[in-house]
Amino acid sequence: MTVEGTCADEFAEVRAEFERNFAERGELGGGVHVTLDGETVVDLWGGDAGGRPWTEDTITHVWSCTKGATALCAHVLASRGELDLDAPVTAYWPEFGQNGKADTLVRHLLSHQAGLTAVREPVPPGGMLDWELMTGLLARQEPFWAPGTRHGYHALTFGHLIGEVIRRVSGLALAEFFEKEVSGPLGLDFWLTLPDDLEPLVAPTVPVERGEALPGMYVTGLSEPGSMQGLLLGNTGGYVAASNTREAHAAQYGSVGGMSNARGLAQMYRPLASGGEYNGVRLVDEAQLPVMSGVESAGFDEMLLAPTRFSAGFMKAAANRRLPAVERGVAMSEDAFGHSGMGGSLGFADPGARMSFGYAMTKMGPGLGVNARGQSLVDAVYRALGYRQALTGTWFR
Q1: What are phi and psi of 368, to 5 degrees?
Q2: Cβ pair 374, 11 in contact under 8 A
Q3: Are 96 and 143 in contact (CB under 8 A)?
């Protein structure tokens, strides 16, 4: 298996770990991309893309890395003064205030504190891809807890909740706003609705192998169908099973539907690692970056049944190295913020290091965050930058 692309000499360990992923960790196809001070220092790819070689232009499903793109859109509006994160959601979406949600703040949606972790009403086949259906269900649903009092990962509902606020404020559908304000100006390989002519570039997702250890969230979900976890796994309208279809790729799904690659992920975060701007394109003011990176919710996660930490829309470093591997989050520096995707993909910005990172692949691994393949690449980047790792797993200078 040949790895292609470029890698600066000081990041040679990243290339070595990427090659080890194929040789020792079961990687099938994927890529890794790193920028430093706005310049690309790692751009590597290789392996299989569904029966053909993975090339520079290959794209794939990046699952919950999509949440980072959706959250970024909200912060673009907030940076412009068009969206107040401390305003009630009903200020922008009046119908949302039903069944005990009138006091829910926009900030609660972003930080997974809204109590809408799963859908209570049955979702019909294909329903997750029906924007009006999903936003209507969520607007009238009673939350699982009083908003703002707990946090729990909104795995499949985050995109509809934040995306509808973005639509109400901007007048544009989420995917249109992302293309107009983010991916278009930056020239990203990142789509929230994939154009038909790009479908041949897609490397299909390969499911996690049976027999892999399961996080407690999955154990609970499979054994208790009526639980939040059971609803998350069983009430999706068949989305996961249909995720490799053209219909799913073409639909707007701001929680888990994004199509990209390592380059698209790292380059989306590149401006956020450089004061909010890159090459004349300003996404947010510098004053918005602490809002994006500051911890909003931390501790026991009601959905994932493990410790998690979130800022306003992004995952933060999880100091949980002592947990079983499948329960761990991502080991980054405390300055970093971004999002992983189911199976192991990852994108993030680290403003303290002025670095951005992206990793995308086809073969899904176990766990709630990244697995050994992605974490090995992150660790190699931080070592190259002269960082050290605490016993908890967090990287520091």
Answers
A1: -90, -20
A2: no
A3: no
Torsion angles phi and psi, residue 346, rounded to 5: -160, 140
Provide the token pair at 321: 């190295």
Q: How many other C-beta atoms lie within 10 A of the C-beta of residue 168?
A: 17
Distance CA 309, CA 12 (A): 31
**If you average pLDDT over residues 331-345, what whole number do you get?**
97
Q: In the prediction, which pLDDT does 319 show?
A: 67
CATH number of 19's domain: 3.40.710.10
- Cβ-contact 259, 188 below 8 angstroms: no
Cα–Cα distance measured from residue 243 to residue 380, given in angstroms and rounded to the nearest whole number: 31
Domain count, the chain: 1
Task: State if pTM tops 0.85.
Answer: yes
| Contact between residue 60 and residue 205 where contact means Cβ atoms under 8 Å apart | yes
- Map residue 65 onto helix, strand or coil: helix
The alpha carbon dihedral of 26, 30, 35, 40 has a sign of positive
| Host domain of residue 210 | 3-320+327-396
Q: At what angle do helices 372-384 and 12-24 cross, to 10 degrees?
A: 160
Percent helix, strand, coil in the chain (nearest 5)?
Answer: 35, 20, 45
Residue with tokens 């995306």: 163
Residues 44-66: pLDDT tens digits?
999 999 999 999 999 999 999 99
Q: What pLDDT, in 10s, does the model give residues 143-170? A: 999 999 999 999 999 999 999 999 999 9
pLDDT band of 1, cuts 50, 70, 90 = confident
DSSP code per residue over 296-308: -EEEE-TTTSSEE
Backbone phi, then psi, for 184, in 5-degree steps? -65, -55
Beta strands in the chain (DSSP E): 3-7, 29-36, 39-47, 59-61, 190-191, 202-203, 259-260, 277-278, 281-282, 297-300, 307-310, 337-340, 346-350, 355-361, 388-389, 395-396
Identify whether the C-beta of residue 182 lies closer than 8 Å to the C-beta of residue 268: yes
Residues in the chain: 397
